[in-house]
Design goal:
alpha/beta; 10-stranded mixed beta sheet; two-stranded antiparallel ribbon; 39% helix; globular; binds zinc ion
Length: 335
């Protein structure tokens, strides 16, 4: 039946079902709950470090002990998962810190799985935070400039994902946008016995100005050039579907669209087309814009945040990665 097939006024009066909160709740088509949220955490070495990210009020770079505190709060308010990003002690041209047995993310995973075994630990699999040049792959310099090498990068990504799984990660999430990385990661995980470790691929990740504040948080700004030769062009929706199809064919168990708010049409199409578990990444600037306007008293932070998250759910996201996860969970729990 077409959703447009309705009765006629005055027999059909849509306002009848909007008369009380209970009635509105009864007929609500979309629900938002803490159980659908993932909380990102930025971890760096040291002790008792809680370094604020200026452009993201309420978000910090945390040493493992402090990270554990925030992960515990998230878990206690009903957020089932965290997503880890690492800021290594030192960077190099091979992203050694990304796949080191005792790298910062690997340490953080072990700590979380020991202290909070019920919390799902998702790890961001990429090289940019660990590369001295800040790109997501191996850089080849030539006369005309520099290029990011696709195929040689796959080995490093696969080694990184496997090292996360070895440390105990519940889900690995490749965010680099190299072609063929999901197959390379799946095959390395399987070879090393991690056949049950799911892959959540950043399948349709767009080169976006909305990542600005994140780069301060992850210290991953490219030293030259930009990421437009590997991340997607914001103009392309059909290509996003091909990217998702490719990742699913290579073994992705969940797919992600990033950013979320300016790409709700992509979320809708990905969910409708593939029906796979679909995540939306509510990125840094989406968060910062609300925080900044709320600080001025221009918008209601709770209202605008929850409405934005609900929009991602309505578009088709099953899972939302958001810096607002703890606040949103508290607001939702309070009714
Ligand atoms: Zn990256």
């Amino acid at each position: 039946m077409s959703p447009l097939l309705t009765g006629q006024f005055p027999t059909y009066r849509p306002r009848r079902l909007r008369q009380s909160a209970a009635l509105r709740q009864l007929v609500a088509e979309t629900h938002l709950s803490a159980s659908q949220l993932i909380y990102p955490l930025f971890v760096r070495s040291g002790r008792r470090i809680r370094k604020p990210i200026e452009a993201m009020p309420g978000v910090f770079q945390l040493s493992p002990d402090e990270m554990l505190k925030d992960a515990r709060i998230a878990f206690e308010v009903g957020v089932p998962a965290v997503l880890l990003f690492g800021i290594p002690y030192k960077k190099d041209a091979k992203a050694s810190g990304a796949h080191a047995k005792n790298g910062i993310v690997q340490q953080a995973v072990r700590l979380l799985k020991k202290e909070l075994p019920g919390l799902l630990v998702v790890t961001d699999v990429c090289l940019c935070e660990y590369m001295e040049h800040g790109h997501c792959g191996i850089v080849h310099r030539n006369k005309s400039g520099a290029s990011i090498l696709n195929d040689p990068t796959l080995k490093l990504l696969a080694a990184t994902a496997a090292s996360h799984a070895e440390a105990g990660a519940d889900i690995v999430a490749p965010s680099d946008m190299m072609d063929g990385r999901v197959r390379a990661i799946r095959s390395e995980l399987d070879k090393r016995g991690f056949i049950d470790t799911p892959i959540m691929s950043y399948a349709a990740k767009f080169a976006s100005a909305y990542y600005g504040p994140f780069r301060e948080a992850a210290e991953s700004t490219p030293k030259f050039g930009d990421r437009r030769s590997y991340q997607m062009d914001a103009a392309n929706a059909n290509e996003a579907l091909r990217e998702v199809a490719l990742d699913i064919a290579e073994g992705a168990d969940m797919v992600m669209v990033k950013p979320a708010l300016a790409f709700l049409d992509i979320i809708y199409r990905v969910k409708t087309e593939f029906g796979y578990p679909t995540a939306a990444y509510n990125v840094s600037a989406e968060y910062s814009m609300i925080k900044a306007a709320a600080a001025q008293g221009w918008v209601d932070e709770r209202g605008v945040t929850l409405e934005s998250l609900l929009a991602m759910r309505r578009a088709g996201a099953d899972i939302i990665i958001t810096y607002s996860a703890i606040d949103a969970a508290r607001w939702l729990n309070a009714g």
